[in-house]
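Figure-free illustration: sequence to structure, shown twice.
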Amino acid sequence: MRLFSRFLPGSIFDGGTQVERRLSRLETSNRCLEMALDAVLFSPKYQPSVDAGFNGQVFRKRMFGDILTAAPVEAIAETGTCLGDTTAYMAVTSQLPVYTCDLNPRFHAIAKTRLSDFDDIHLSLVDSRRFLRESAHGALADKFTFFYLDAHWYDDLPLPQEIDIIASEWNQFIVMVDDFQVPGDTGYRYDDYGREKALTMNMLRPLLRQHSLVPFFPAIAADQETGAKRGSVVLTRRGENADMLAAVPSLRMWGG
C-alpha cells in the first residue's frame, strides 16, 4: 500500500469522502483519455450521428433548436471544446459561426484536426475566462450570442466567473450550462466537485440577483431523455429575452 500510494495524488488514503472523490477523478481522467484515443483511432473527422453532440441527448438538441427558432442568435461561443462533437453539431444545425476554446492541449489538437473541414468554426487554446473577455471586445462584440458552457473541471471551476463575464459584457445573450442539476429531478446527472463546487442553484443565486437572470430547465423528465442524461440550465436576462424563452415548449421557467 505504501509503495502504491507514491504513484497516486496526495491524501488519497486520508478519508472516505476524499478517497471517493479522488477515485472518481482518476476514473474521469481515464475515461477522457479513452475518449481522446477513440477519437483519434475511430473518428479522426467529425461524423454526424444521433450520439454526436450534446451528450447524445435528443431532447437537449431539441432545446437548442427551439432556442435558435425563438431568439435572433447571431453567433455561438463554447467553453470546453473537448473533442468537438457538440461544436460541430451547433455549427451544422445553426449555420452560424462558432467560437470555442479549451485549455487542454490534447483535446484542442484533436478537435482542430476533427473539425478542419469547417470554415466557420474558430478554435482557441486558452482559459475560458480570457476567451470570453477577449471575445467581448473582438469577434463577438455587440452580437446576440448563444453561450454553451462546458469547461468545468475538478481543480478549476470557472462557471461563476464565466457567467459574470457574459452578463457584464453582453447585452443580448442566452447561456446553456452543461452538467447542471435539474431541481426536483434526480434522474438528471450533474457535476459535484465537493464543498461549494456543485453545479446547483446554490452556486447561481448570487449571479441571478446581481445580473437579473432568469433560469430555465428541460421541460421533460430525465426518464424521457436519451444519451447521458446530463442536466442543464438555460439563463438569460429578465425582460424581452426571458419572455422569448418562456414561450419555448422544450423549456420550463424555474419558479423556486
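We now fold a second protein in the same way, so the two outputs can be compared directly.
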Amino acid sequence: MSLGNLKTEGNKGNNFPFQLKVLQGLQCTCDELKAIGVDTAAIEATLLDIEATLQVVETNTTGVARIPGIIRPTSSGDVNTVAATFYSVSVANVGLADGTVLGVQIKPGEILNFSADALNNFFTSFAYDATGTEFIITYIS
C-alpha cells in the first residue's frame, strides 16, 4: 500500500496512518460479514428490505403493452405500412434469391435483427424488397 506516500502532503512520505485506516476498515468489514454469516435472521431481514425496495421501484415503473406482428412479403414494402411505430424487427430471407433490407443485400438463409433497445425508443420506417424471394418479418409495435 503506497497510496498516500507523498512527500508534499500529510506526513511527508509516511503513509502509516493511511495504511492503518485501510486495515481497520477491512477488519471492520470482515467482522460485520462474520456476524451476518452467524445470524441468518439478519440476512433474511436484509433481503426483505431489498425486496421491499425493489417492489416500490417496480410499482412506480409502469410497463407498456406491446403487440407482436408477423408478415411474409414477396414484394417490396415498408414495415411502417403495418405499424406507425415499432420497437424491434427481425427479417429472415427464407426464399431462394437475394432481397434487400434498408438498401443492403440479404442473401437466402440470412437473418437480421434490429431493436430500439431503450425505453421509449422506436423505429418509424423499415424498408425492404423481397421481390423474387420470400421474407419472414416479425416486429413489435
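Summary for the second example: The two ends are 56 Å apart (CA to CA).
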